Amino acid sequence: MQAQTSIIAHRGSSFTAPENTVAAAKLAWEQNADAVELDIYLSKDNRVVVMHDSNTKRTTGQSNPISETSSEVLRTLDAGSWKNDQYKGENIPFLEEMIATVPSNKKMVIEIKCGIEVLPALQQVVNSCGKKDQLVFIAFGWETILAAKQLFPSNACYWLSSSATEVSAKMSEAAQKGLDGINLNYKIIDQETVTKAKELGLEVLSWTIDDPEEAKRLIQLGVTGITTNRPDLIRQSIQ
User: Fold this and answer.
1) What is the rounded distance in angstroms from the CA atom of residue 78 to the CA atom of residue 58?
2) Helices 164-176 & 191-199 angle (0-180, nearest 10)
3) How far apart are the first and last CA of the chain?
4) What is the pTM of this model?
5) Which helix (H) or strand (E) holds 165?
């Protein structure tokens, strides 16, 4: 991410558009987000698909475990109507479709929601997308993010956590293992955490912040990425 604080659109501009869809990504770019964050799983036929949950029920109304469902079936589902009728027919995207929306000076933050099983298919997508240097990887899974860093050594990789205890225990190891930073629930971020991270050469990103005052607090602490459902509001408030 850039040295100044980046505005990262959480699952795209997901306050307005249906999360993790091409429409949400395009709206985030229109709202001048610096990056779009999204979530990935591996389908039954080894396609990397964009979805937050392991099952499609919440955003499509139909219950399909992604790992047990072919992409052909997943692509027939409507992932837009639940948010607003104007988004009816919005597909569950393939990762490559989301990457294709990224403007030349922007980033895409890819959260690996499943485990290391997705990495071979992910590597194929990344190597053929033509925008590899614009991709960033994040994961809650410790082994998963370390494996991603090994696979993509030139790409920034951040470990996700919402546990202050866990972060305190693992921060030094994150630096030793070559990770680029930590990506934390905003509630556990204080000056001590940011200072320690910087001493170790780690960046601190944050999620998920829709309150302008909270965004300002984090920026003052030295956080370099604000993940938000409302990139337009946060951009406006910090300018």
Assistant:
1) 11
2) 10
3) 18
4) 0.98
5) helix 164-176
Q: What secondary structure letter does DSSP report for 5?
A: P
Sign, CA dihedral 12-39-162-150, equals negative
Element (H, E) at 229: none
CB atoms inside a 10 Å sphere around CB 225: 25
Residue 158 pairs with which residues in a beta bridge? 138, 181
Of 17, 22, 1, 15, nearest in space to 210 by CA: 15
Give me the count of residues in the chain: 239
Residue 8, token pair as written in the block? 């990262």
**pLDDT per position as a tens digit, 30-54:** 999 999 999 999 999 999 999 999 9
User: CA 122, 133, 157, 139: dihedral to nearest 10 degrees?
Assistant: -40
Phi, psi of 37 (to 5 degrees): -100, 145
- Helix, coil or strand: residue 139: strand
Residues facing 226 on adjacent strands? 7, 206
pLDDT in tens, 60-112: 999 999 999 999 999 999 999 999 999 999 999 999 999 999 999 999 999 99
Question: Bridge partners of 37?
Answer: 10, 109
| Contacts for 12 with CB less than 8 Å, ≥ 6 apart | 19, 20, 21, 23, 24, 25, 26, 27, 28, 36, 38
3-class secondary structure for 104-129? CCCEEEEEECCCHHHHHHHHHHHHHC
The DSSP bridge pattern shows strands 135-139 and 107-112 to be: parallel
- Region class of 128: left (phi > 0), else alpha (psi between -120 and 50), else beta: alpha
